[in-house]
Amino acid sequence: MPRNRSFDLPSRQIHLDFHTSPFIGDVGKDFDAREFARMMKRAHVDSVTVFAKCHHGHLYYNTKSPARHPGLKKGLDLLGKQIEALHREGIRAPIYISVQCDEFAADTHPEWIAREVDGRPVGAGPFDPKGTGWPVWQIMDMSSPYQDYLADQTREVLEIFDRVDGIFFDMCWDQTSCSKWVIEAMLARGMNPENEDERKKYSHEVSLNYMKRFHAIVKKKSPDASVYFNGRPLWNLAEEVKYQEQVEIEALPTGGWGYLYFPKNVRFARRFDRPYLGMTARFHKSWADFGGLKPYPALEYETSQMMAHGARCSIGDQLHPRGVLDPAAYELIGRVYDRVEQREPWLKGAKPLAQVGLFMSSSQQSQGHATYGTDEGAVRMLTQLRQQFDIVHVDSDFSNYELLILPDKINIDDALAKKIKAFPGAVLFTGSSGVGRFIDSEGESPFQTTYLRFGEKISRDVPATDHVMYDRGVRVRAGKGWQSLGNVVEPYFDRNWQHFSSHFQTPPDRESEYSFALRKGRWLHVPYPIFAAFANHGSAIYRLLVRNLIELVLPEQLIDVAGPTGLEATVAQQKNRTIVHLLYYSPERRTPTLDLIEDVVALRDVAVSLRLKKKPRRVMLVPENAEIAFQYDGERVDFRVPKIHGHAMVCLET
Fold first, then answer.
1. Domains and CATH numbers, the chain
2. Rounded CA separation 361/50 (Å)
3. Phi/psi of residue 297, each to 5°?
4. pLDDT, average across residues 625-635
5. Rounded CA gap, 282 and 284, in Å?
6. In the structure, what pLDDT confidence band is assigned to residue 404 with cuts at 50, 70 and 90?
7. How far, rounded to the nearest angstrom, does the alpha carbon of residue 391 sit from its chain's CA centroid?
8. Residue 25 pLDDT
9. Does 529 have pLDDT greater than 60?
10. Is the pLDDT of residue 131 over 90?
């Protein structure tokens, strides 16, 4: 994939929000440029994204535009002073520009606001309690003259600030609209503006066109500046990577993203030839949570997870309107980033390794938004099994994987079917994936709830009883070439209003002729949505089923770790080093909506076995440089980690 970048994305970034209301009148009043930059330096920060324009639509530099913040201290070029001071300390300073959120433009030119099908403006209405949920903002129409207005603002920033490190364009999703500009443009293209699918297609074309336009505007004036459009679906990267010189995965775990969003999406983003980072924040909850400070263990975990997946780190903050950073926040950030900096020698250039290519159900949706069934279940389960996996799609190169997993509901078209047939490794289909193309079925089971009776070959650690499967599957038999590994036990009847038994599902009746696990050479099939079931019900039996099936076709796992299921393990390659990351933190659901981390419980004497082609010269904990005794049998190296206090890094030098 083509790559055109002239910078190495810094590892310890701050995304410094500054969405400041025009009703605040003392903006920048207490700003001290030298102290601002020195506090960043003391906190081990090497890049700060600073604001030219916020969602309120206001500008924070010296300009004749009426959009300059009305409360900004007279004569203060806040953005310019920030950039100058940061550069003096050797800190990178990319510039933030809000795209589809611009309250000033919306209020000044309401005709530029995107329109719903019924003509209502998209986003917050005139009496919505702005600031208490989504949408907080009025959403602009990029088919309107607003796009030229934004282009003029971008050119002005590039003209005023000669040394531009990068431009961060935010709020850049595909926004459908029924404005007069959209309707006219669609008709001119022969598209039907009454058709929702056509409107979505057009909105995507608009996004691609303005990304191309603004990328060119930046590059013409500042060829070495990086360009990034935030808010784009990651699944569009193959098409849009030519405009994206980095990939940022915004994922504030307590801000609605949760703790699975980053590890799920980074496994897809890391496959592209672009530097990538994870973005969390110092807030207790989400953006602009003034006074909300995250516990240190949580921020340590979030940055450790980024390091473990080969990502750079970004921590979000918001500058107080008067221009003064919060010392407590930067004491917290500095403690975390000091730790990241110590580990950088074993992070730079390290590439995560993977045995397994996992398809995602959401990758086949037009916008690719997060799903919380199959995708969450698959990532959670494979992480608990310590499988090393990437997220893939039909256009991916499968040659580096030993196993492909098509979970629950992957549509297999002719192109994908051809690639699967040619794939020499193992394949696991679950649910309806592959049914009708590679596996014959007798249709959906008439029973919502059935039971699984494990055969001997997949029974390791499985208690000898019939195990409930809560979700409906399809009926399959062991046809030609397929071997049954376990049979379905069906209930007396399905529970409904006409007949029921006791409090929950009807008990098992008798073993059927249908299979719940099939094998054909290196192909496996589970005719149930096993990953969605794991996400929704959390049964450890479902994880054992998948583990035992994988062991049949992938007996040599890249890494084996003896530890609790919450212990995460990733493996990366860095020249003549193999780096093993071991993470053990425990998010707890302490409010109805928040998973929080306050405590770190150490694990001791943890056994690890790693597949390695060459005998290592030494094995050591880093950055402590404490050597660890090991054994090597020609194929695997075995060692014991004396202590994992949250995050341990083990370096094997060959």
1. 12-348 (3.20.20.80), 356-553 (3.40.50.880), 559-653 (2.60.40.1180)
2. 36
3. -55, -35
4. 97
5. 7
6. very high
7. 11
8. 96
9. yes
10. no
13: phi then psi, degrees, rounded to nearest 5: -105, 155
Which helix (H) or strand (E) is 630 found in, with range? strand 630-632
User: Are 568 and 645 spatial neighbours (Cβ–Cβ below 8 Å)?
Assistant: no
Q: Model-level pTM?
A: 0.94
Distance (Å, whole) CA 452 – CA 178: 52
At 527, which amino acid appears?
A: P
pLDDT in tens, 214-226: 999 999 999 999 9
Written as six digits, the tokens of 433 are 């994936």
Is 143 in contact with 180 (CB distance < 8 Å)? no
Q: Is the peptide bond before 345 cis (omega within 30 degrees of 0)?
A: no
Distance CA 111, CA 180 (A): 9
- Angle of helix 196-221 relative to helix 146-160, nearest 10 degrees, comes to 20
Q: Are 259 and 587 in contact (CB under 8 A)?
A: yes
Q: Extract the tokens encoding 474.
A: 């399809």
First CA to last CA across the chain, in angstroms? 30
Cα–Cα distance measured from residue 547 to residue 304, given in angstroms and rounded to the nearest whole number: 26
Per-residue pLDDT reduced to its tens digit, 324-354:
999 999 999 999 999 999 999 999 999 999 9
Both structure tokens of 599: 């405590």
Both tokens of 16, joined, read 């410094």
Give the integer Cα–Cα distance in Å for 99 and 102: 7
Rg (CA), the chain: 27
- Secondary structure class of 268 (helix, strand, coil): helix
CA distance linking residue 526 with residue 320, whole number of Å: 54
Q: Which two tokens stand for residue 570?
A: 């990733």
Question: How far, in Å, are 339, 540, 602, 641 from residue 562 at the CA level?
Answer: 26, 17, 14, 10
Is 101 in contact with 171 (CB distance < 8 Å)?
Answer: yes
The pLDDT confidence band at residue 133, using thresholds 50, 70 and 90, is low
pLDDT of residue 371: 42
> 577-583 and 568-574 as β-strands: parallel, antiparallel, unpaired?
antiparallel
In this structure, are residues 15 and 316 in contact, taking their beta carbons and an 8 Å threshold? yes
* % of the chain surpassing 90 pLDDT: 90
pLDDT tens digits along 546-586 = 999 999 999 999 999 999 999 999 999 999 999 999 999 99
